[in-house]
C-alpha cells in the first residue's frame, strides 16, 4: 500500500533524524495567539468562510522512526528541504534519446510523476510544534485496533483490493462515489492530491464541500441523528457550538465507506462508529481540526488526533473522476479474461471436456 514517494520520504526523514541529532537548534513556527479574535457571522458565531487545505507530509499514524509526537525544528525543516529536492528530481525531464524497454507483461506500467501530485510540502504544525503524526492519543501515535478489529479491517481491505466479482466489491473511491483515503468523510485526512475543502455557513446548516470527489457533507445544527436505516456516504453529521468551537458528531456511515485506504495510510470504521470533530479558527490562515473516533467493537480505546487546515486560494474546481476513467471496467474485464483463460486451460487438461 505504501507508495514509492512515501518510502522515499520515510528513508529521507530517517536519514535526517540520525544525521541531525547533534545539529544546532533552529527556530520553529510561532505558536498561535491565544487572544486571536476570529471573523464572525451575523449571529456572532465564528466564520470559516473560504477554501482550506489539508495537504501535509504528516499522516495519521506515526512512523516507527519517531519516538515522540513533536519533531525538533532542525529535523523538520531539513526533511522539508530534502523532500523538495526529491520532488524536483522526480520532475526532471527524461532524455528523449534514451531507449527504454517496455515493461514485462503483467507488470507495473508506473503512474503519475510528481508534477501531478500535490500532497503538500511541509510537516503538520500544531500551535508552533512540528508533528510526527496526527494521532495524539494513544501516545504511540498508532490506531489502537483490538485483535478482532484488526482482523475485520484486514478482511475488508482484502475484499476491496482482491475481489473482482462485481463493481460493488471494489472500493468506493475506485467507483468514484467518494474520494479515496477518507478525504471527505469524517475524520477527514490528507492524501496525495485534491486536499481542499470549502465551508458554507448558515444559522442551521454548515456544508463542507470537499474537492475529491466533489462531495458535500451537510452538518445539521442543533439536530438529532436520523435512524440507522438512513446511512449516507459521508455519514449523518449533526453539530452545535461550544463557545467559538464547532462540534460535530457523525455516525450512520454507508457500509461501502468502512474501508478507507490510500497509498500512504489505511484504516477501518463501521456503520455505527462515532466520530466527534471540533473546528476552531485560531488564526486568519488556520483552523484547528480535532477529532475523536469511538468504536469499542474495533478499538481498545477511543483515539484522537489533531491537525491544521491551512487557508488557501480558491476556487475549488470540478473533480471529474469518471471523465475518461477506464480503470474500473478494465479491472473487471481483466478478471473475466483471467477466468476465461483458466476455464479453457482446465478444459484442455480434462481432454477438452
The overall pLDDT, averaged over residues, is 88
Individual helix count: 4
**Spatial extent as radius of gyration:** 22 Å
Q: How much beta, percentage-wise?
A: 15-25%
The major β-sheet equals: 9 strands, mixed, barrel
Amino-to-carboxy terminus distance: 41 Å
Beta strands, count: 15
Helix amount: 10-25%
Strand order of the largest sheet: 1-6-7-8-9-10-13-14-15
Low-confidence stretches: 1-9, 11-24
Give the overall silhouette: globular
Global structural class: alpha+beta
Spell the H/E element sequence. HEEHEEEHEEEEEEEEEEH
Question: In words, what does this structure look like?
Answer:
Helices cover about 20% and strands about 25% of the residues. The protein is an alpha+beta fold and about 350 residues long. Strands 1-6-7-8-9-10-13-14-15 form a nine-stranded mixed beta barrel. Strands 2-4-3 form a three-stranded antiparallel beta sheet. Strands 11-12 form a two-stranded antiparallel sheet. A hairpin with a 2-residue loop joins strand 9 and strand 10 (about 245-250). Helix 1 (about 5-20) runs antiparallel to helix 2.
Helix and strand layout, with pairings?
Elements lengths: L3 H16 L30 E4 L16 E2 L1 H18 L34 E2 L2 E3 L3 E3 L9 H16 L33 E6 L3 E6 L4 E7 L14 E7 L2 E7 L7 E3 L4 E3 L5 E10 L2 E9 L8 E10 L14 H23 L4
Parallel strand pairs: 8-9
Antiparallel strand pairs: 1-6, 1-15, 2-4, 3-4, 5-15, 6-7, 7-8, 9-10, 10-13, 11-12, 13-14, 14-15
Helix pairs in contact: 1-2
Amino acid at each position: 500500500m505504501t507508495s514509492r514517494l512515501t518510502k522515499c520520504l520515510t528513508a529521507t526523514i530517517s536519514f535526517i533524524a540520525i544525521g541531525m541529532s547533534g545539529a544546532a537548534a533552529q527556530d520553529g513556527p510561532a505558536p498561535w495567539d491565544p487572544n486571536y479574535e476570529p471573523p464572525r457571522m451575523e449571529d456572532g458565531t465564528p466564520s470559516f468562510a473560504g477554501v482550506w487545505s489539508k495537504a501535509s507530509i504528516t499522516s495519521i499514524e506515526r512512523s516507527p522512526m519517531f519516538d515522540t509526537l513533536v519533531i525538533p525544528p532542525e529535523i523538520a525543516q531539513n526533511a522539508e528541504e530534502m523532500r523538495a529536492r526529491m520532488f524536483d528530481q522526480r520532475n526532471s525531464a527524461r532524455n528523449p534519446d534514451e531507449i527504454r524497454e517496455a515493461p514485462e507483461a503483467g507488470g507495473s506500467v508506473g503512474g503519475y510523476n510528481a508534477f501531478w501530485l500535490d500532497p503538500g510540502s511541509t510537516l503538520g504544525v500544531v500551535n508552533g510544534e512540528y508533528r510526527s503524526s496526527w494521532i495524539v492519543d494513544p501516545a504511540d501515535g498508532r490506531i489502537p485496533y483490538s485483535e478482532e478489529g484488526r482482523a475485520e479491517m484486514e478482511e475488508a481491505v482484502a475484499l476491496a483490493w482482491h475481489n473482482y466479482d462485481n463493481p460493488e466489491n471494489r472500493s468506493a473511491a475506485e467507483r468514484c462515489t467518494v474520494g479515496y483515503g477518507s478525504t471527505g468523510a469524517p475524520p477527514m485526512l490528507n492524501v496525495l492530491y485534491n486536499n481542499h475543502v470549502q465551508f458554507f455557513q448558515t444559522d442551521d446548516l454548515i456544508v463542507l464541500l470537499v474537492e475529491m470527489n466533489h462531495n458535500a457533507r451537510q452538518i445539521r445544527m442543533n439536530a438529532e441523528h436520523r435512524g440507522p436505516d438512513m446511512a449516507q456516504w459521508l455519514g449523518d453529521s449533526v453539530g452545535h457550538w461550544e463557545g467559538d468551537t464547532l462540534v460535530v458528531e457523525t455516525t450512520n456511515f454507508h457500509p461501502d465507506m468502512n474501508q478507507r485506504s490510500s497509498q500512504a495510510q489505511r484504516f477501518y470504521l463501521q456503520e455505527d462508529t462515532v466520530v466527534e470533530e471540533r473546528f476552531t479558527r485560531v488564526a486568519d490562515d488556520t483552523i484547528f481540526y480535532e477529532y475523536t473516533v469511538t468504536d469499542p467493537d474495533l478499538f481498545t480505546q477511543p483515539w484522537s488526533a489533531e491537525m491544521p487546515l491551512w487557508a488557501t486560494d480558491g476556487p475549488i474546481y470540478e473533480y471529474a473522476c469518471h471523465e475518461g476513467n477506464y480503470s474500473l471496467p478494465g479491472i473487471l474485464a481483466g478478471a473475466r479474461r483471467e477466468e476465461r483463460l483458466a476455464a479453457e486451460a482446465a478444459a484442455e487438461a480434462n481432454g477438452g471436456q
